[in-house]
Write a structure and sequence with these properties.
The protein is α/β, with parallel strands linked by helices and 199 residues long. Helices cover 39% and strands 17% of the residues. It has eight helices and six strands. Helix 3 (85-95) runs parallel beside helix 5. 28% of the residues are buried.
Amino acid sequence: MKKIGIFGGTFDPIHNGHIYKAEEALAKLNLDELIWVVAGNPWMKSREPLSAAKHRLEMVNIAIQGKAKMKLTDIEVNRKGPTYTIDTLKDLTNRNPGDELVLLVGSDLIQEFDQWKYPDEILSLSKLAVFTRKTTVKDTWKMTDFYKTKGHKLEVLCGPIIDISSTAIRDRVISKASISEYVPKAIEKYIIENKLYLG
């Protein structure tokens, strides 16, 4: 049986913070594998314009080159309609029978977890691991205690704060400011060559 981390997001673009968190999860949770799930049409971000899926997939693919335990899937991108975590977990459970799935989420998302589609079923299919920041540690631990009282497994990853956001990176590209300290060099090159985020 393998222990597999599921790391989903729009990754528009993927940045050093995402990569650090993925590596932190692999190490601290003793994962055998981490699967990056690039969102297709995420219902919670449906009002935000997204770059074409092919670009977001390729940027993740570039970023994880040489990282043997990291894999990429396009199952959400290929699914029609809004993207729901429960559907992805069902697909991945079918593809990895007998393996333990660990859903990796940010502490900002866990605060809204009860608004997700079928949250109890999500918790029946996977363990939950929450990335937290110092500012939200107290609230996150409260949420952890709440889920544990319901018999669900939940872990908290209290790593260093990585103060990077994809939104800020896109804004810097628009203003022609450097993004070299926020993304791998190959991702910066891809963004420039494909003229991403310039409108």
